[in-house]
């Protein structure tokens, strides 16, 4: 399991609102523990439905520590004020949720309050999970309570003052949590609503793909799905501001979500890899199409390139970029040709290793910041969305900062035809340092 460091900045917002917390003091009662001598029994079908919902919500991605038991918790989420540890959501009575009734579970998912009545930090995406229907919550509960109970004494979350005052979250919730199941938009199709339910609810796509305000809550309106930050990576805009030179159509989105790769775009790497691997790739065709239907509705209705023209447009973008690599007149072109082309040519020859993503079509090259490209070149792709995609080697020890700057400047200006990234050298240096201990 990949180790995740979700630096969610909402914590800064808590500082601002913690003062208000006194005013908005609200307390929640403990919910009676379950009678654990008489555990409830659930049908195999219900448990299987619940497992799929748990996958949709990436529960195991966050609730499993590196090399730990699935859902036994303990993953460290580092924020500037300390470390939040995910909890054990297996049915162990002592250290997990074994004595949680359905009511207690539902309150946690809908309102972000644990069985005893404590506020949970919004690193747990309950602002999205709240949209889950009662029926789905029941299935999810059935699955969680049917797992093998694992005793796991996880480290206790300990943030510095005032973030350690959990009650401060009540004021933040008042501003940014709209508790309650998803309400269908009657102006939209059933398929669109199904996609909205999955994306806005358990899928919590906007937790990463939407920028945050000063209080570190997700922005709304035109900023929804307008691109955000996740573990030091950029989660590209999925709305009309998509950086992709082609834009996305439904079929490409479905393919990307199913396999982690779309030839007209690229791969799901970094923090998106586990989202595809554990969450999206196991969904039904109908649900992936519903998500795609919902997502494309946020793009330019005219689309960047019409369906019938997409093959030619992609070939043209590749042609203009790749045909000018030679003669190797710049240092960047020489590095690209020597270090990258063997796996990233678009000449149609045999594929050396997994897939052969086109660099010219990759959204990351068209982003206003170079961070994802730097991550990829420094650290490669070590935890792919699927083994079939292959692994990309890390170049951290093969290239110095100056060479990486020359390579990325070349790709940005010559392949993507975009203005130079400001502060590129500084970012390469920083990201090299930040990712040193994990690589
Ligand atoms: C982005 C990471 C993330 C994801 C995804 C996630 N959780 Fe959590 N969850 C957390 C964190 C962090 C906490 C602890 C919050 C705290 O200590 O205040 C938590 C706490 C909980 C709690 C409270 C448990 C307790 O003992 O207090 C429950 C229940 C829970 N999560 C269920 C789920 C379920 C079910 C899913 C999948 C549908 C899920 N979580 C997905 C991060 C996540
Ligand atoms: C944990 C953070 C996170 C979550 C949650 C998340 N994404 Fe992503 N997503 C990313 C990152 C980071 C990238 C960039 C990956 C890369 O370039 O390899 C990305 C890339 C993508 C892309 C490709 C965009 C492009 O132009 O290349 C699509 C499509 C996408 N995500 C869809 C989704 C959907 C749908 C969901 C919800 C089901 C979702 N994402 C949830 C972080 C996330
Ligand atoms: C040994 C083959 C190999 C070499 C050499 C290689 N790559 Fe890759 N690269 C891959 C594979 C395979 C993937 C897809 C990995 C995955 O997601 O599983 C990939 C993915 C990528 C992506 C897409 C990442 C994303 O998130 O969309 C970029 C950009 C990239 N490589 C750039 C480069 C650059 C620049 C170089 C040269 C410094 C390079 N690669 C060298 C095999 C290679």
Automatic annotation (TrEMBL):
<keyword id="KW-0677">Repeat</keyword>
<feature type="binding site" description="axial binding residue">
    <location>
        <position position="344"/>
    </location>
    <ligand>
        <name>heme c 3</name>
    </ligand>
</feature>
<dbReference type="GO" id="GO:0033717">
    <property type="term" value="F:gluconate 2-dehydrogenase (acceptor) activity"/>
</dbReference>
<dbReference type="GO" id="GO:0009055">
    <property type="term" value="F:electron transfer activity"/>
</dbReference>
<feature type="transmembrane region" description="Helical">
    <location>
        <begin position="7"/>
        <end position="25"/>
    </location>
</feature>
<feature type="binding site" description="covalent">
    <location>
        <position position="205"/>
    </location>
    <ligand>
        <name>heme c 2</name>
    </ligand>
</feature>
<dbReference type="InterPro" id="IPR036909">
    <property type="entry name" value="Cyt_c-like_dom_sf"/>
</dbReference>
<feature type="binding site" description="covalent">
    <location>
        <position position="340"/>
    </location>
    <ligand>
        <name>heme c 3</name>
    </ligand>
</feature>
<keyword id="KW-1003">Cell membrane</keyword>
<feature type="domain" description="Cytochrome c">
    <location>
        <begin position="190"/>
        <end position="299"/>
    </location>
</feature>
<keyword id="KW-0812">Transmembrane</keyword>
<feature type="binding site" description="covalent">
    <location>
        <position position="343"/>
    </location>
    <ligand>
        <name>heme c 3</name>
    </ligand>
</feature>
<feature type="binding site" description="covalent">
    <location>
        <position position="208"/>
    </location>
    <ligand>
        <name>heme c 2</name>
    </ligand>
</feature>
<keyword id="KW-0479">Metal-binding</keyword>
<dbReference type="InterPro" id="IPR009056">
    <property type="entry name" value="Cyt_c-like_dom"/>
</dbReference>
<feature type="binding site" description="covalent">
    <location>
        <position position="59"/>
    </location>
    <ligand>
        <name>heme c 1</name>
    </ligand>
</feature>
<keyword id="KW-0408">Iron</keyword>
<keyword id="KW-0472">Membrane</keyword>
<feature type="binding site" description="covalent">
    <location>
        <position position="62"/>
    </location>
    <ligand>
        <name>heme c 1</name>
    </ligand>
</feature>
<feature type="binding site" description="axial binding residue">
    <location>
        <position position="63"/>
    </location>
    <ligand>
        <name>heme c 1</name>
    </ligand>
</feature>
<dbReference type="Pfam" id="PF00034">
    <property type="entry name" value="Cytochrom_C"/>
</dbReference>
<keyword id="KW-0732">Signal</keyword>
<dbReference type="GO" id="GO:0005886">
    <property type="term" value="C:plasma membrane"/>
</dbReference>
<dbReference type="Pfam" id="PF13442">
    <property type="entry name" value="Cytochrome_CBB3"/>
</dbReference>
<protein>
    <submittedName>
        <fullName>Cytochrome C</fullName>
        <ecNumber>1.1.99.3</ecNumber>
    </submittedName>
</protein>
<feature type="domain" description="Cytochrome c">
    <location>
        <begin position="327"/>
        <end position="415"/>
    </location>
</feature>
<keyword id="KW-1133">Transmembrane helix</keyword>
<feature type="domain" description="Cytochrome c">
    <location>
        <begin position="45"/>
        <end position="148"/>
    </location>
</feature>
<keyword id="KW-0349">Heme</keyword>
<keyword id="KW-0560">Oxidoreductase</keyword>
<dbReference type="GO" id="GO:0005506">
    <property type="term" value="F:iron ion binding"/>
</dbReference>
<feature type="binding site" description="axial binding residue">
    <location>
        <position position="209"/>
    </location>
    <ligand>
        <name>heme c 2</name>
    </ligand>
</feature>
<dbReference type="InterPro" id="IPR051459">
    <property type="entry name" value="Cytochrome_c-type_DH"/>
</dbReference>
<dbReference type="GO" id="GO:0020037">
    <property type="term" value="F:heme binding"/>
</dbReference>
<dbReference type="InterPro" id="IPR014353">
    <property type="entry name" value="Membr-bd_ADH_cyt_c"/>
</dbReference>
């Amino acid at each position: 399991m990949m180790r995740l460091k979700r630096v969610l900045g909402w914590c800064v917002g808590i500082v601002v609102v913690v003062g208000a917390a006194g005013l908005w003091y609200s307390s929640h009662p403990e919910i009676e523990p379950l009678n654990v001598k008489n555990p409830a029994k659930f049908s195999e079908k219900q448990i299987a439905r619940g497992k799929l919902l748990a996958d949709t919500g990436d529960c195991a991605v966050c609730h499993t520590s590196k090399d730990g038991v699935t859902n036994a918790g303990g993953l460290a989420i580092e924020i500037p004020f300390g470390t939040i540890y995910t909890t054990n959501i297996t049915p162990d009575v002592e250290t997990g949720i074994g004595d949680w009734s359905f009511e207690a579970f539902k309150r946690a998912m809908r309102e972000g309050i644990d069985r005893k009545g404590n506020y949970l930090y919004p690193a747990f995406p309950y602002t999205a999970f709240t949209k889950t229907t009662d029926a789905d919550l029941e299935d999810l509960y059935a699955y969680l309570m049917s797992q093998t109970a694992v005793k796991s004494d996880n480290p206790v979350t300990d943030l510095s003052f005032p973030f350690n005052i959990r009650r401060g979250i009540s004021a933040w919730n008042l501003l940014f949590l709209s508790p309650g199941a998803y309400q269908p938009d009657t102006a939209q199709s059933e398929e669109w609503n199904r996609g909205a339910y999955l994306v806005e609810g358990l899928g919590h796509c906007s937790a990463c793909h939407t920028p945050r305000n000063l209080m570190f809550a997700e922005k709304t309106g035109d900023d929804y799905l307008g691109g955000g930050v996740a573990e030091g990576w950029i989660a590209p805009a999925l709305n009309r501001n998509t950086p992709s030179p082609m834009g996305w159509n439904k079929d490409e989105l479905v393919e990307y979500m199913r396999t982690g790769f779309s030839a007209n775009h690229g791969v799901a790497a970094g923090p998106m890899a586990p989202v595809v691997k554990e969450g999206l790739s196991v969904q039904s065709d109908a649900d992936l199409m519903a998500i795609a239907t919902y997502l494309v509705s946020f793009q330019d209705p005219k689309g960047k390139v019409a369906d019938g023209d997409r093959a030619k447009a992609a070939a043209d973008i590749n042609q203009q970029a790749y045909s000018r690599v030679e003669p190797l007149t710049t240092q960047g072109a020489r590095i690209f040709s020597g270090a990258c082309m063997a796996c990233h040519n678009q000449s149609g020859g045999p594929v050396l290793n997994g897939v052969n993503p086109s660099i010219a079509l990759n959204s990351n090259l068209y982003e206003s910041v170079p961070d994802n490209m730097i991550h990829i070149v420094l650290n490669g792709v070590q935890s792919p969305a699927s083994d079939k995609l292959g692994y990309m080697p890390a170049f951290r020890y093969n290239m110095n900062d100056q060479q990486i700057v020359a390579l990325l400047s070349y790709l940005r200006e010559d392949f993507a035809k975009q203005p130079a990234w400001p502060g590129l050298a500084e970012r390469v240096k920083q990201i090299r340092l930040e990712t040193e201990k994990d690589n």
